[in-house]
Write a structure and sequence with these properties.
The structure holds two protein chains of two kinds. By secondary structure, chain A is an all-alpha fold. In chain A, 72% of the residues lie in helices and 0% in strands. The radius of gyration of chain A is 18 Å and the shape is elongated. The relative contact order of chain A is 0.13. By secondary structure, chain B is mainly α. Chain B has a two-stranded antiparallel ribbon with strand order 1-4. In chain B, strands 2-3 form a two-stranded antiparallel ribbon. In chain B, helix 3 packs antiparallel against helix 19 and helix 4 runs antiparallel to helix 5. The longest helix of chain B is centred in the last third of the chain and has 47 residues. Classes of the chains: A mainly alpha, B mainly alpha. At the A-B interface, helix 1 of A face helix 24 and helix 25 of B.
Chain lengths: 107, 620
């Protein structure tokens, strides 16, 4: 199979993820978009591994690592989202702006 | 023994440090330590003088090299010869009596301990000047004296006048010291060494000698309170009276005259310098004496008389009278210390400095009155008191230089100037001395206080100082005594010349008589108001020299200071503040980006990342 098919697919997935992260306001959807981006990278890794015919399959190994880390990250991310919901009854990302610069505070 | 001379300044110096550190905690107060140290120095000075008397021409030097940098070698060491030993002994004795006198005078003063310590330091500095073998060591002592005089004149720093007098003394003498420093450099570099013996022996170019000595003269004029830098000395009366005695008699003002005497062979090679010195001396001598005539403050009378008498010494040196100048320095130290301490006893009793509030004090002061009378007679130059002999020797030297015009003296014209002005000053001196004597001790009492003699610690120094004031003149009448000790060449006695003596004693008596006659008509009033009512104000203000300085120096300096402050506030500060304000404004703009929306941040990151990647792809 030609290398360009998985790469195009992965690029599409990544753009989809970027779009989701930048545009969606629901924190869970943002997390899901991040997963999309990670999996696009995984696809890249596996595709290149197959194309290079690496003897030790380092591409696949990295992909496994990324999956593991993604699992941990989702665990943390969902915990944060849960706390956010408990505190604010809302998981809208653009509403959580407590750390913005206060205009009236003089330097 | 002479090699131990370094102990003389070292002892008071150590005591000064001890006194400053532990003065308040010493058992029995700070006085015993200070008096003991000065006494020890005095005892150590005696063998030096004895050695100098036995072998007057011998110069004992010790030298330790301190550092050598770029061809300039700095040495530390002492130089003991007849001159330095004699002056050192004089300094020690006056300092000892001043310390002793202070026990009574400064009793109960909250800052007595630091006062005693600084007097010790002052003594140490003067002894360093006197005994230094190296011009740079001398300079150190010279400068330490400057700071000590500042501290002591400002002893009563609660009062505004004391603070300003201290600052004035410091700044005025500093002005002269600038020239002094460069004078030392000129001579030292010209001679290739800063050691006094090397400078004296060096074959200096004529230009170097003229420039060097004229620059040194600046320092001398400042330290010895000669015109035009004399104005600090009358104001220095703001300090305690014993300090006035110390500054006027033994230290500080004597240092300038001593320096000229120390480097006298160099000075005599420059006739220009001696001419300048003669003119300065003539102006100062008469001007200060006239100013003394109209002062109401008893200490200011004495202060102007010091200025005038120092001018006699300077005049004596300028006409080649090395011996007479030093002779007058020594006798003046005796009687001026006596006069100041006696004036202190009077002030102590009456509680005021003003003669218009004294009068009739002779009855209540059985010790102060006769001793002060002796001092005043010496100041007026009446025979046989000490001042007569020394003043006579100066006038004699001036007369000789004027008529014979020897090489090592100012030109004959200037010698005549010194002689004539010196004679006129004798008349004025006698007049102001009489005025002080009559206004203080005679006539009806104008004082409210009960007149009680000062305590023992204050009267003893008076009695002790009255002896040299009366008799010290006789050490000069034999050529083998003082003239040989201090190395006068060619050797000759300071015997009064008949011609000048008759004229000057006549003038002195005339001055006394004039003042006494005027005073008798109205014993309560000020005789000068009757004698010269028109000139009185000008005399009282010392010919407005202070006012002239105020207009030409002080006020322009203040104005310039204000301009500098303005420039600092409006230019320098504006730049600093402006950078702060601009940073604040720029920061305010950047703060707008910090809006709290996480997706905006991520967008920024992503755009940045893309920009980097694209630029790498395009540029690489």
């Amino acid at each position: 199979m030609h290398l360009v098919y998985p790469l195009v697919l992965s690029a599409l997935l990544f753009c989809l993820g970027i779009y989701g992260v930048l545009v969606r306001r629901n924190a869970i959807l943002v997390l899901m978009s991040i997963e999309l981006m990670l999996n696009a990278v995984n696809l890249n890794l596996v595709a290149f591994d197959a194309w290079v015919r690496d003897a030790v399959h380092s591409g696949q190994v990295f992909a496994l690592f990324v999956i593991t880390i993604a699992a941990a990250e989702v665990g943390l991310g969902l915990a944060i989202v849960l706390l956010l919901y408990r505190n604010r009854d809302s998981v809208q990302v653009d509403e959580a702006t407590e750390l913005r610069e206060q205009r009236e505070v003089a330097a | 023994m002479s090699t131990q001379a370094w102990l003389l300044p070292a002892l008071p110096f150590a005591v000064a440090i001890l006194g400053l550190l532990f003065g308040r905690r010493l058992p029995g107060g700070p006085a015993p330590l200070a008096v003991t140290a000065t006494l020890l120095s005095t005892v150590l000075a005696v063998p030096l003088v004895v050695g100098a008397v036995r072998a007057p021409t011998r110069v004992t030097e010790t030298t330790h090299q301190l550092l050598s940098a770029g061809g300039v070698t700095v040495t530390a060491g002492t130089r003991v010869d007849g001159l330095s030993a004699t002056v050192a002994l004089m300094v020690c004795i006056v300092a000892l009596l001043v310390q002793f006198y202070s026990i009574g005078y400064m009793k109960g003063d909250p800052r007595y301990s630091s006062y005693a310590a600084i007097v010790s330091l002052f003594t140490a500095a003067m002894l360093l000047v006197v005994l230094a073998a190296d011009l740079l060591m001398l300079l150190i002592g010279w400068e330490v004296m400057g700071i000590c005089s500042y501290l002591l004149i400002g002893h009563y720093w609660e009062h505004e006048y004391a603070r300003s007098a201290a600052v004035k003394a410091f700044l005025t003498t500093r002005t002269g010291d600038v020239g002094f420093l460069f004078g030392i450099f000129t001579l030292g570099i010209g001679a290739g060494s800063f050691r006094i013996s090397d400078v004296l022996a060096a074959d200096l170019a004529h230009g170097t000698v003229v420039v060097g000595t004229l620059l040194l003269l600046c320092g001398v004029v400042g330290k010895s309170a000669q015109f035009p830098l004399h104005t600090w000395l009358p104001d220095a009366m703001a300090g305690p009276t014993p300090i006035s005695a110390l500054i006027h008699a033994a230290t500080m003002v004597a240092a300038g005259i001593y320096l000229v005497a120390r480097l006298f062979p160099v000075f005599t090679r420059s006739v220009v310098t001696l001419d300048v010195l003669a003119v300065i001396a003539a102006i100062t001598m008469l001007g200060a004496a006239l100013a003394a005539l109209a002062q109401d403050d008893i200490k200011r009378v004495l202060a102007y008389s010091t200025v005038s008498q120092l001018a006699y010494m300077a005049g004596g040196l300028s006409v080649g009278g090395y011996g007479p100048g030093i002779f007058h320095l020594l006798t003046h130290a005796g009687f001026k210390a006596l006069l100041f301490l006696a004036a202190g006893a009077v002030i102590h009793t009456v509680g005021t400095n003003l003669m218009s509030e004294m009068g009739g004090l002779r009855r209540g002061l059985p010790i102060t009155f006769p001793t002060m009378t002796i001092g005043l007679a010496a100041l007026a130059g009446l025979p046989p008191f000490s001042g007569f002999f020394s003043k006579e020797s100066i006038l004699g030297a001036a007369h000789e230089a004027a008529t014979h015009g020897e090489g090592a003296a100012a030109s004959s014209t200037f010698a005549w100037l010194v002689l004539v002005v010196g004679m006129a000053t004798v008349f004025v001196t006698a007049a102001y001395v009489t005025r002080l004597w009559l206004r203080t001790f005679f006539g009806p009492s104008r004082s409210a206080a009960a007149v009680v003699e000062a305590p023992f610690t204050m009267t003893l120094p008076l009695v002790l100082l009255a002896v040299p004031s009366a008799l010290l003149g006789f050490v000069g009448v034999d050529a083998n005594w003082l003239p040989r000790w201090i190395g006068v060449e060619p050797l000759r006695a300071f015997a009064p010349e008949v011609g000048t003596s008759v004229v000057s004693v006549g003038l002195a008596l005339l001055g006394i008589l004039t003042m006494a006659v005027v005073w008798r008509r109205d014993p309560t009033g000020d005789p000068i108001a009757r004698l010269a009512p028109a000139a009185r104000r000008a005399l009282d203000r010392a010919f407005y020299v202070d006012d002239a300085y105020d207009a030409t120096v002080v006020r322009p300096t203040f104005a310039a200071s204000r301009d500098v402050i303005g420039a600092d506030v409006h230019a320098v500060d504006a730049v600093v503040n402006g950078s702060g304000v601009s940073a604040q404004v720029a920061g305010g703009v950047l703060r707008l980006a910090q809006n709290g929306n996480i997706q905006a941040y991520v967008t920024g990151m992503f755009v940045g990342l893309v920009a980097i990647v694209v630029s790498v792809a395009v540029l690489a």
